[in-house]
Amino acid sequence: MASATSAVTLLSGLYGLQLESPTADDASIDSEQNDHDKIQNWPSFTSLLTTVASCGLRQYNQGLFLEGLRISRLGEGLDYKVDLCEDATKKELVIVKHVKLMLPATESREEVESPIIRRFRKVQTEIRIMAHPPLLKSKYILDLLGYGWEYAEQAYMSPFLVVGYACHGTLRDFLRLTTRQDVAQKQDLTEDIAQGLYALHHCEIVHGDVKMENVLVCEHEPGTICAKIADFGSSIIGAAKSSKIEYYGTAEYHAPELRVSTTLKGDEARSSALDRAYSLDVYAYGLLIWEILLDGARFFHRPGVHLAIKRRDYDVVRELALKDCYSTVAGRVEVTIFNKLIENILQVDTDYRWNTLSILKNIRKLENESTPGQTIVFSPLQPFKALPSGLDLDDSPIEILDLLQTGEILDNNGSSEKLRLPPWDLQKAIASGLMQQVTYKSSKIVGKSALHLAVCYFLGFGVERDIDQMLHCMRMAAEAGVMCACSVVERLHASFSRPYSLDFEAIQDSYWKEQASIVTEALDAVEHEKRAIIALDALGDADDQEQISIVIKSMKAESYTTPWHAIDMVSQRRVLTGMASQPALGIHHLAYLGMVDELAVQLESGTKDYEDEEGRTAIYMACWGGHLNAIKALLSHGSDASIADSDGYTPLHFLVMLPESDVEEAVQLIMSSIANVDINAFTSEPLVFPEGWMEIVGAPIHWAVASHNISMIRALLNHGADILTWETGNSPIHLAASLHYHDVLELLLDKENGFSVNLVKHMESPLFCLDTSDPVWRTVIHGKSWKEAISHTIDVLAQHWDINELLEPEMGFTPLTQISSHNKSEVDVEIAAYLLKKGNPETRPRIFSALQFGIIGLRDAHLSSHAKIVHLMLDAGCSSRTESSASQYTDTRFKPGWNSLHWAINQGNVSVCRHILQREPDLVHVPTNDEFGDSPLHLATSSGTPELIDLLLDCGADPAAESKKSSLTVLGFYLSDQRTEPNMSILGKLLQISEPNNYIAFSREQERWTFLHYLSVRASLLNLEGVQGQWLLQKVLSEYPYIKVLLDTRTKFGWTALHLAAYNVGYSTARILLEASADPLLETPGNSARALDIVMERGRHSPPESVRGSRSSIEARWLDLAYKTMKILLKYMEKNDMFFELSKLHLAAYIGYHKKVIRLIEKGADPKAKADGMTPAELLRSSLGGRVDEKFQRRATRVLEYLDGL
């Protein structure tokens, strides 16, 4: 609704000022800042957050790959590290792509930001492309499952992507490693890739780097493979109107024209830059087909190719490809198809190079099919308009709230799909970045950043909720000329009893001088017959100063009603001023301007009302202009008031523009003028309110409710406006409840207007809508009486709906639990307080208590200001002992058998834990009532802080307590949750409190392990899974050298940490222990085995089944680590004057390491050399008696056959 929106909002410039890139002074980074401060300065977080929020993707927890679910590291590229993981919720394999944050040593802003922001933008590009609805549905594009945030290298917050698992790897891997593919299979793969390119190009996306490594082979259905295009970091989005495009790609796959210049320019006579970029994708695809025919071999290694490219003889390149086609493809039909593809794709002249549609038609010999093989309706993906700095501060508070405001923690089906809020640490990073930007010299950046920061303080997004700070930032934004801040700043101050008066004239003087000259020039440039319509499309900046003044004055009223009529009068006067001595206007313009005499003349002369190009009639324009007399004149001459414009707006919608005194008569006139006027005409096109803080969709009754226009609401109800049959999300009743318009609710719920609660049973109770509108705007419209508005609204609704109603008894919420779990802002505290006063807080659904809902609503925010609702519940007597119940849902966040203290510890909120323990101190000893049986102190090691651990210890928590299932002490439990980078302050605290218990980490009746025993095993197993687990061990021994006293401490069975490392073939672990002076000569009691003896025997067995990962890769790693562990142990034993004759070949042969045996022989190892009188083959053969592992027996046989054959 381009035209209508511009007239009924405050036009251009209202919502804020255009941002500029920070100056060098603004952007400087103090070299003394710590790493955490530096990351907060980077603007890419906000931009990336905007992208992921708008795409509606699932947000994964970092635990996806930190809670022991990572299977293996698949590889590492320029921008990503790639892991294979298991999604425990859905029991499926997924790929996690970690963005690399490798930072330069100099840490200057330019050197730090350039690679990081580039990578962030590549992530943005990938997300936007893969989440684009038509591509999300395409089976030829790699599936994007979600995203998440993690602490990456050097504790920097970094995003990761979760994508579908390609079980067959890249296309090159698939062709090289699988049995030789038949031609039909290759043809299918060729078509799959063409379908993917077709989908991308029809969405106006250039892939930018087509090659085999960027095509993955997945199992689409059991037994059916499909090639999917991946890696969109180099892609170009929405370049249809670009006259110039930069295309890079991989040099070997460049088309001839790209080898001259990577810059593409459009040629109107021939093709656009975008068409040329598509053609580059196609040429690279042609080279990829060549490599498919070569079973994955690289085309540029073929004889003659390199020379032809060097000479720029690309016809020869094509001939070489055709030659390989004839030599590798069997079957006349297939040869013809591939021959045609190569002949027409590898064309030097782009005019003759096929596009993706031509390719698809020829692969399957299809004809007259516009979207071959796909039923998806494609739509262009629009370019992402990020600012040069990478920061995308929103123009409108509506967008700010969409970005920052808390989403539902759980939906009524127990789904986590709606969780959109970024993790608390990232919220802090964003808020801190905004704090820095409000210190910049540019008033434009300061204004927009201050507006964002004000909302952050109101919501508690990354900061303590702080009304004084919120008001301070809103003043900064207003005084910097951000109009939506100007419109509300005085009333916000009044709402919280802080007097403030905005000097708006001073802001006008500094800001509007330039704007006024711009508009004057625009007026002079408009042709005379179009001059009157300027109010609809072109005016704006010059009007804004008076219009915003009207809003500010209206805000001073006791009860605020949107001043639509007064605002639009400004635009109309401006148009009239510019109309002097102009020819006669048409009836649309006369109706809009209220020029009734001139309008009557035209109507009397026979001019009929009609629809303009936007579908607007003159009667529509008369309503828009707010002129009752013009409405009367048009209706008396037969104007049809039932006609809607192209967006679905009717004249009835625009009755909000009339003075309230005229609305009732206008409704009566329109409804009596014609029989088929649809009083309930619904449009989903939003109306943006002039203050900039709200938009509305719906029928005329919705517009009236949102505008708080009591006269219009009453008039519409008198003529049959529907309030009963709407669904919950579209109900005027729920809209009024969300805005706390209790006077409107009294009118809507009046029996005389036909209301009965029995008629709206299909709707949710409007008590569940109390927090669904913008909390800032809701506070503003009620001013000083916002708290009274809450209580009156609840009282009105409670007369008709049960205040303790359960929504979906299994998972569902009561009004109180919904408010407490959402916990969006300071305003919600008042809502919760009144619901507590009026309702029963112990009314609970099956899974969580009301108190637990409130604690879960903290969402990892450790700040006391976020916990006010929980403290209110505790003060109201809510039980902390009630345990959460079992659930039918598989979501890992459902924890049966947890009381409120467990949940509060899980959220890391010290103030709530302290409050609970003050009331019920014995809960500090109560473990979770589930299969795990973890104590509160166990839980605190995972999600708490040193302060929280201190609190529990002060309250009597036992540091030696053991978990029921794992038999781990608090110290062992903490280690079990760590991968590579622990919180050293927490670890130091746990070591300190564990000293009296001799640092025991694991204890059962027959076994006791110290911290170092357990850590050695865990580090070894992590290494086996492909994780650098030894980092944790190395860090501990470095930070806490007193732990070295445990090096030779024995378990109950007499094993040292080195013995355990050897048992788990922990090469890196053994090396670190040996470097720390562990004794390699110590023997186990009973069998007198040294570490070397242990690893030599373990290397002959299979790895534990509990180790996650591909069995083949785990077994290969097991052998390699066992061999390296034997070597390092042998080395240190010789340092201790214990000499062995065993050679490397003896070691490799003894464990059946066939590959290593061959390599050692090739490097000159002597297979006849003897140790203890035996050659490697004799040593192996002599050890094969008795029971041996079957897999080892097969390996040993291969080794012996090889050695015997030498």
Automatic annotation (TrEMBL):
Pfam families linked to this entry: Ank, Ank_2, Pkinase
Name of the protein in question: Protein kinase-like (PK-like)
This protein's record includes keyword Signal: yes
Organism lineage string: Eukaryota, Fungi, Dikarya, Ascomycota, Pezizomycotina
Signal sequence bounds: 1-16
ANK repeats: 614-646, 700-728, 728-751, 932-964, 1053-1085
Keyword Metal-binding assigned: no
UniProt keywords, alphabetically: ANK repeat, Kinase, Repeat, Signal, Transferase
Organism domain of life: Eukaryota
Originating species: Glarea lozoyensis (strain ATCC 20868 / MF5171)
Any GO MF annotation of the entry: ATP binding
Protein kinase domain segment(s): 68-366
